[in-house]
Amino acid sequence: MVMTAALPEGITVFERGWLSANNVLFHGDGETTLIDSGYCTHAEQSLELVSRALKGRPLDQLINTHLHSDHCGGNAELQLYYPLMETRIPPGLEQQVRNWDPVALTYAPTGQQCPRFNISSVIEPGKEIALGNSSWQIHGSPGHDPHSVILFEPRSRALISGDSLWENGFGVIFQELEGERAFYEVAGTLDLIESLDPAVVIPGHGKVFTHVSQSLAAARRRLEIFRHDPLKHASHAAKVLLKFKLLELQRSHLTALTHWAEATPYFNLVHARFFCDVEKSTWITQLAADLVRSGAARREGAYLQNR
Ligand SMILES: [Zn+2]
Question: Between 39 and which of 73, 164, 272, 283 could a Cys-Cys bridge form, CB atoms 3.0 to 4.6 Å apart?
């Protein structure tokens, strides 16, 4: 749990890992709100963190910055515990959530899990929303995800950045993998963040940070590398998806993990688009070996252990 002096009063950030996104809880004056709910296998822990901090108060509102499984996987559990809570998402996938379409919501293609949840309404970029006793601006932040939003409070200059900006980088640019140009959207979102001039950033993953210009510069350098070498981005993305599965499983037989990846549509898509000159199972085995080489996993005999 992180309490940062630079944050407005009444906000607590639960810094999670990479399987679950961070959760931002508004529990001061006004309605209580949680931003993002983590991954489903951590749902009980998320609920525990929230209910303990609320000390018996109900959670009035849940908002998702975007609908990746690590940001809304705890929604269903929170809705069970707080039946009167309003759940609000960015526009763009409202019908897909109401009809529950796990393909359009990316859970099926990425081989990730997300229990079905309900929504009350959408939050509109360009408008403001009351969080605690402050008014926060809602900005669209396409790039990592076309429908994601960031939230900005001009008095404290606090920014909730989701996966659009982390201390060291930003989330995988999924549309680029699917053949739609989105690197320029990431650049636009980084420009938007710079124009807001945040004093403190609460990212979707990693710690709260204040050296924003440094992080923006690092993100732009990273974007340039990907822009000049989209294969590098595609390979990075596939490793992120494989590592995410390993985070969920913690330990897996290497054969089982590679079979899982071979049967997961997103790996097929990335392989077919970028790496079809290498046999698919060889490519996936190389990805796993790269995770070991970079220290993201450890090889223990026939098993791969998360690190
Ligand atoms: Zn994301």
Answer: 73
